[in-house]
TrEMBL record:
PROSITE patterns: SET. It holds the Pfam family SET. Residues 216-521 form the SET domain. SUPFAM superfamilies: SET domain, TPR-like. InterPro entries: SET_dom (IPR001214), SET_dom_sf (IPR046341), TPR-like_helical_dom_sf (IPR011990), TPR_rpt (IPR019734). This is SET domain-containing protein.
Length: 658
């Protein structure tokens, strides 16, 4: 997009940068008219939407090549590499009704199942066998492999059934002889060993139990300092579940595209499932695939044709297509408009693709209700802060809105048309998503987790295998009610996610009428005051006025400080300066510019031991607290700041060079 930005003349840049939301109809039309006469712009749109130029289309030749490389690795017993090649081959297999496809797909599933069987991934292996049978029910190798993995799972009745079916379908004498030998062994084991029942945890998409929400009455109210926000009309106990919500739209972030399911955002298993129409998304199960793409039959002609044509007046932009809904009639298939091989959804930023999903959902709902009149776009009741955006950000929003509109136009093919204010509404939608989208955070095992534990034969209960986990950001989404909760650097509400669903729980006792506030990221104790304010201003366009930002916290003062040079002292050496001390607070100069108030705790109200600790840290015997650069706040030992800062800079430089 940098090429398009640099092509915009200075006068249009100035008009866009100085304009407000009321000026959007004129500024968007001005930029659209300019781009209509720029060959570079038409080239960019063609590169993003033309399937012949696409990087994400299916390729049977590529699938066959990857299958051969997987076979070679399997022969050399390089099973992990073989697993990767078979999965990539499945990613590139196109939907087709020719005979080659009907042989290739079940073969790939069985090959991948055999590889996972070797790696001890039995449940994943069983699912691939089921997929192979669903595509080709008369494929003997699929029944044989499923029988063998059922035997490994000690499900001998199922194993015997599968091997008998495989025996009836096998046409070669050597194949029949092999199956008969395995069948005899399993029949013998069946007589001597008890059956293993199906565990309730076998289901890949089994949901986690959640307590019913506490009967909390929430109300959206406005305050002078923070504007709209949520508050409770009754008392809330700690750990109460106060809100549950599914997103209006969600998108996986680029760094997790290959490692997490694009619908439920859980970690992708070894037996990933791919989109049947393009190579972009991966899914953890058939269920997630159908939720995102829709229920597409294997013999359906799903080719999408794109006709290239020049831009026209934005009041006449036509959009058409036949949409697929998921098995749940209330759910719109969120990925369908991004399919067909065009790679714009893989190239554009995540928040722009998310805006496209919101727009596509709005269009689909209108089409499903029979409304074919001209539309302007969704009018979400969310803040956008367009007027205070930077000129550069305004220009980017304009360009992305035009590009996104034309990418959607390439997909939709009905007599549906846009109103003149469509682009204006799309610019505001992009701004709303930037300000209001919520990061979906999941827990990630950093040492293998349950899957590794099971593959090694451990029992998490009896063997007490240790597992380290960390929080990672996997996606971003728009939650219409969740977006109304204001931020606090000391929140009283905790957010967490199961799949795409947002859950909010209280972290403390909350009085009736008190605001319910969560953290948008920065929290006291994790960032200092100035960093928190800067982060919130840049990302959410507001200056935080919560209780933790109204004055300095001790954590703000010591979070980036140095340790006391005396080994037995636990005090901190700050670069900040305390220039005045009073009874209950001091004023602190940060970075030589900002001056903040720091309240001191009243140690007389705590027990004797805490009083001793407080006096040691906050007071000297004969003087008030002194916060001077280079001096320990506890024992007053001096540290050569210039020396340690230089050492720190050299170490940081070496780290950054790697």
């Amino acid at each position: 997009m940098e090429r398009l930005k640099s092509a915009v003349p200075a006068d249009i840049r100035r008009a866009v940068g100085e304009g407000t939301a009321r000026d959007l109809p004129s500024t968007t039309s001005l930029l659209l008219d300019f781009f209509d006469g720029v060959p570079l712009f038409h080239q960019v749109i063609s590169e993003l939407t033309d399937p012949e130029l696409a990087l994400c289309r299916k390729d049977k030749g590529r699938a066959v090549e990857l299958k051969g490389r997987g076979n070679a690795c399997f022969s050399k017993r390089e099973f992990e590499q073989a697993l990767g090649f078979y999965s990539q081959a499945l990613r590139y297999v196109p939907i087709s009704s020719d005979g080659n496809y009907e042989i290739l797909v079940p073969t790939l599933y069985v090959n991948r199942a055999s590889t996972m069987h070797k790696l001890g991934l039995l449940k994943q292996c069983l699912r691939d066998c089921n997929r192979a049978i669903s595509v080709s029910s008369n494929y003997a190798k699929a029944w044989y492999r499923r029988g063998m993995v059922n035997a490994s799972l000690k499900k001998y009745s199922s194993a015997i059934h599968d091997l008998k079916v495989a025996l009836s379908m096998e046409v070669t004498s050597s194949g029949k002889s092999n199956i008969e030998q395995e069948l005899k062994l399993i029949l013998l084991k069946h007589r001597n060993v008890n059956e293993v029942g199906r565990s309730s945890s076998d289901c890949q998409d089994a949901g986690l139990p959640h307590t019913e929400p506490h009967k909390v009455v929430l109300e959206c109210a406005s305050t002078p300092n923070k504007g709209r926000g949520m508050m409770s009309l009754n008392v809330i106990s700690p750990a109460s579940l106060i809100h549950v919500e599914d997103p209006l739209a969600a998108i996986i972030i680029k760094s997790c595209r290959e490692t997490h399911c694009h619908y439920c955002f859980s970690e992708a298993p070894a037996d990933v499932v791919f989109c049947p129409l393009c190579t972009i998304p991966v899914y953890c199960s058939k269920e997630c695939q159908e939720q995102a793409v829709g229920d597409i039959s294997w013999n359906q002609d799903t080719s999408l044709e794109f006709n290239s044509h020049h831009l026209v007046d934005n009041a006449k932009l036509g959009l058409t297509s036949t949409r697929c809904k998921t098995s749940n009639s209330k759910q719109i298939a969120e990925h369908m408009h991004e399919c067909g091989g065009a790679h714009w959804a893989a190239v554009l930023p995540a928040d722009i693709v998310l805006a496209g999903r919101v727009m596509a959902q709005y269009i689909d709902k209108r089409l499903l209700t029979g409304k074919s009149s001209a539309i302007s776009g969704p009018n979400l009741d969310l803040v956008h802060h367009y007027d205070i955006d930077s000129p550069t950000s305004k220009l980017e929003s304009h360009i992305y809105a035009i590009v996104l509109l034309l990418c959607l136009q390439k997909y939709y093919r009905s007599d549906l048309s846009w109103r003149e204010e469509s682009l204006s509404q799309l610019v505001l939608l992009i701004c709303q998503i930037k300000v209001n989208s919520i990061a979906i955070v999941h827990m990630k095992s950093v040492d293998g987790g349950q899957e590794l534990t099971e593959s090694k034969g451990y029992s998490t209960a009896s063997d007490a295998v240790m597992c380290s986990v960390e929080q990672i950001r996997v996606a971003q989404a728009i939650y219409m009610s969740g977006s109304l909760f204001n931020h606090s650097c000391r929140p009283n509400v905790h957010t967490y996610f199961h799949s795409r669903t947002l859950f909010l729980r209280s972290t403390e006792y909350i009085e009736s009428g008190s605001p319910l506030e969560l953290s948008y990221g920065p929290q006291a104790g994790e960032m200092d005051l100035l960093e928190r304010q800067k982060s919130l201003q840049e990302n959410y366009k507001f200056s935080c006025r919560c209780s933790s930002c109204s004055e300095l916290n001790l954590s703000d003062l010591v979070i980036d400080s140095f340790c006391c040079p005396r080994s037995f002292c636990l005090g901190a050496v700050s670069e900040s300066t305390c220039y005045r001390s009073e009874e209950n607070f001091v004023h602190v100069s940060l970075n030589g510019s900002a001056v903040c108030k720091l309240s001191l705790p009243d140690v007389s109200k705590v027990d004797e031991d805490m009083e001793k600790v407080g006096k040691l840290f906050f007071r000297n015997d004969d003087a008030d607290l002194k916060i001077d650069p280079g001096y320990c706040m506890s024992c007053r030992s001096q540290l050569d700041l210039s020396s340690v800062v230089a050492t720190l800079d050299r170490a940081a430089s070496k780290i950054n060079s790697y």
